[in-house]
Amino acid sequence: MSKTNEKRRQFLKLSAGGLIGMTLGGVSLRAIAAEKVKLDDPLAVAMRYTHESEVEGQYCHNCNLIQGEEADWRPCAIFPGKLVANEGWCAAWVAMQ
């Protein structure tokens, strides 16, 4: 077998492995993001996060930091990899533009 064929096969193996790794990595990241913010989480405590807003007119669903499509629990820029309640609130609330 020539060196060119060996290099080509090595390249294809590495490319296939990288593609599989990226695919599985994306699946695991989505699984991690499915975790809801716990009220005793240190960041949640520091941000005074609550699952049900006590501040009139201020909810996670109308905050500029909320991400993702409309749902009961959604990703938030303040809590990476976690979901916040649509009706929740935290001290970082910013009016949606």
Automatic annotation (TrEMBL):
<keyword id="KW-0249">Electron transport</keyword>
<dbReference type="InterPro" id="IPR006311">
    <property type="entry name" value="TAT_signal"/>
</dbReference>
<feature type="domain" description="High potential iron-sulfur proteins family profile">
    <location>
        <begin position="31"/>
        <end position="97"/>
    </location>
</feature>
<comment type="function">
    <text>Specific class of high-redox-potential 4Fe-4S ferredoxins. Functions in anaerobic electron transport in most purple and in some other photosynthetic bacteria and in at least one genus (Paracoccus) of halophilic, denitrifying bacteria.</text>
</comment>
<keyword id="KW-0411">Iron-sulfur</keyword>
<dbReference type="InterPro" id="IPR036369">
    <property type="entry name" value="HIPIP_sf"/>
</dbReference>
<keyword id="KW-0479">Metal-binding</keyword>
<dbReference type="InterPro" id="IPR000170">
    <property type="entry name" value="High_potential_FeS_prot"/>
</dbReference>
<dbReference type="GO" id="GO:0009055">
    <property type="term" value="F:electron transfer activity"/>
</dbReference>
<dbReference type="GO" id="GO:0051539">
    <property type="term" value="F:4 iron, 4 sulfur cluster binding"/>
</dbReference>
<dbReference type="Pfam" id="PF01355">
    <property type="entry name" value="HIPIP"/>
</dbReference>
<dbReference type="GO" id="GO:0046872">
    <property type="term" value="F:metal ion binding"/>
</dbReference>
<keyword id="KW-0813">Transport</keyword>
<comment type="subunit">
    <text>Homodimer.</text>
</comment>
<dbReference type="GO" id="GO:0019646">
    <property type="term" value="P:aerobic electron transport chain"/>
</dbReference>
<protein>
    <recommendedName>
        <fullName>High-potential iron-sulfur protein</fullName>
    </recommendedName>
</protein>
<keyword id="KW-0004">4Fe-4S</keyword>
<comment type="similarity">
    <text>Belongs to the high-potential iron-sulfur protein (HiPIP) family.</text>
</comment>
<keyword id="KW-0408">Iron</keyword>
